[in-house]
Amino acid sequence: MTITWLGHSCFLLNSGGFRLLLDPYHCVRGLPDVAAEADAVCCSHDHFDHAYLDRITCTAGKPSPFTVEEVQTFHDDQGGKLRGENTVRRFTAEGISVVHLGDLGHQLNSEQIAALTPCDALLLPVGGTYTLDPAGARAVMEALGPRIVIPMHYRRGSWGFTELAEVEDFLSLCPGEMLRTHPGSTLTVDSSTPPQIAVLSPEIDNRS
Hints:
Layout: E1 2-7, E2 10-15, E3 18-22, E4 36-38, E5 40-42, E6 56-58, E7 67-74, E8 85-93, E9 96-100, H1 110-116, E10 121-125, H2 134-144, E11 148-152, H3 167-171, E12 179-181, E13 186-188, E14 196-199
Parallel strand pairs: 3-5, 4-6, 9-10, 10-11, 11-14, 12-14
Antiparallel strand pairs: 1-2, 1-13, 2-3, 7-8, 8-9
């Protein structure tokens, strides 16, 4: 399976040629609106930076190799009173499970953790303000115990919402030997992929 980061909280999972798009966005500082082709789309919640479908082309008829488990959570730590609900999903194909946390705003309870594990790769918001802050993100990471973590929903340089923390704030809380900065936007995940916290570069070169 390949995991490609399109920026912010948007990823493209590809298993056997089936393309599953997660949380397409628009109006994120420094990043062009997502324009992509996919076989299916999943959005964690109905906000502009997670559910922008205007430039998404979906193909129909191809059978999906993914099984999907959903866990209802909240976009804040006050039971959704501030920002509403958030759907966390666990996608499994090729014996690999990927959890996309969307805009999770709180710690997970034991039932939620059980539903989301085992987890091979965790797509983890780390920027705070609207989601888990760096310390909260680390706590969720430790609770789920993934082999691979890909940070998302943060600010870096000229892109990302200015009110978010930078990714380095999260990385500074993590074991240094686990950190890997990748030059590209895609990570191939299989049983031999080593444990890591993978910092990817957003895939923006093929969009305008």
